[in-house]
Amino acid sequence: MAVVRTSGGGSVKLVVGIALGLLLGILSMFVARMAGRLVIRSLRREGATKTELKLRVLYFAALLWTVISLLLSMQVTGSVIRLVSQ
Questions:
Q1: What does residue 19 show for φ and ψ, rounded to 5 degrees?
Q2: Band of residue 5 on the pLDDT scale cut at 50, 70, 90
Q3: Which of 3, 4, 50, 73 can pair with 78 through a Cys bridge, CB separation 3.0 to 4.6 Å?
Q4: How many domains in the chain?
Q5: CA dihedral of residues 65, 66, 69, 70 (deg, nearest 10)
Q6: What pLDDT digit, counting tens, does each position of 8-31 carry?
């Protein structure tokens, strides 16, 4: 919420930032959950040989998605708060 502090604060900007951050977080969680379900479905069809590799890739992708979604949500929230403050 550094953008709120630097752009003059205000409760409206803070509420907009929190609401937008929560919305983007829920959307990110939904996308990650759907991707996990798709991978689990594909694991059930295959044998145990590829399962370990796919699970490793899934964990790495989840970590990468967490970092990307964090950066995107910070950028979007900051831009919306700056737009509201003008």
A1: -65, -45
A2: low
A3: 3
A4: 1
A5: -150
A6: 667 777 777 788 888 888 888 898
Q: Nearest 5°: phi and psi at 48?
A: -80, -10
The domain of 20 spans: 2-85
Angle between helices 11-45 and 51-85 (to 10 degrees): 160
Instruction: Quickly tell me which residue has 């919420």 as its tokens.
Output: 1
> Do the Cβ atoms of 6 and 85 come closer than 8 Å?
no
Say how far apart CA 7 and CA 39 lie, in whole Å. 43
Full-model pTM: 0.64
**Which pLDDT does position 24 carry in this prediction?**
85
Instruction: Tell me the average pLDDT of the chain.
Output: 78
- Extract the tokens encoding 85: 């403050």
